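User: Hey, quick favor. My workstation is busy. Could you predict this chain's structure for me?
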Amino acid sequence: MSACMLRCLAAIARKGVKTDKGFKEIHITKVAKELTQLVSYEVTNTQVTNHLRKWKVRYQKIEKLRMLSGALWDDDQKMIVLEEQHYLGHTQDTPKDAEFLNTPLVNFEYMETCFADKLATGKFAMGSNEPLGKLIEVEGPENPIDLDSLHAHGEGFVEGQATHELRGPGIDATTPSPSSSNRKRKRGPILAEEGMIQVTNMSEALRDVAGAINNTCHTETHPDLCKTVMDLTQFEMEQRLAVLDYLTEHKGKGLNFMKMEAEVREASFKRIIAKNPDLV
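Assistant: No problem, here it is.
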């Protein structure tokens, strides 16, 4: 049902229909009819809308995880790839993310068509002191404004089309022009650009620091590791102590060892001894 819904909506989006504010009711109704035919019972518009919201949140989560430090993207399998230690550390902190990492993402292409470029990322956000709208040209020595050539409603100021010297009744070349505020406004784009560069650099630095912390913060072993290894009484004490030291040193392998079923854990124990004869 999810694949059918996303496939239908993706087909609508590919036709060039504007969906930046979400899909219209007519599109939701069309999908509801498609799903009703698929499952042979009535599917309402509300159900489609709620289910679509769930997948949008899922896509937002995926896009966030793709920005993880050290994460790679496998475009062939549509998969976020993390190195083993990084993966184990991240999923230890946030187990719910495991379903999105190192595994192909179901229906990703449909989600991308439906939601990509329609999410607020803050990438082009402006600060609270920035003027809204596009930047306009202002009067200056290299770009004077002719008041007489402009329409009464000031359209030329907004569009930035004036290209003549500032002239008007009661104003001549010796009259100081009120351009001090304009000069301040002209500095706005430069300051805004510098500010955006600083913010971008700071964000990248913080992302690198977070990645480094994430990779080094998993220093503790599983609290039940010692007991679990010692309970394997079919092995000699020397072997158990050696394997315990090995799993304590290799934190990721220790965490995996604790997740195994009893039979698999016993086989893993034997494999560790076999591959590391110097342990005992």
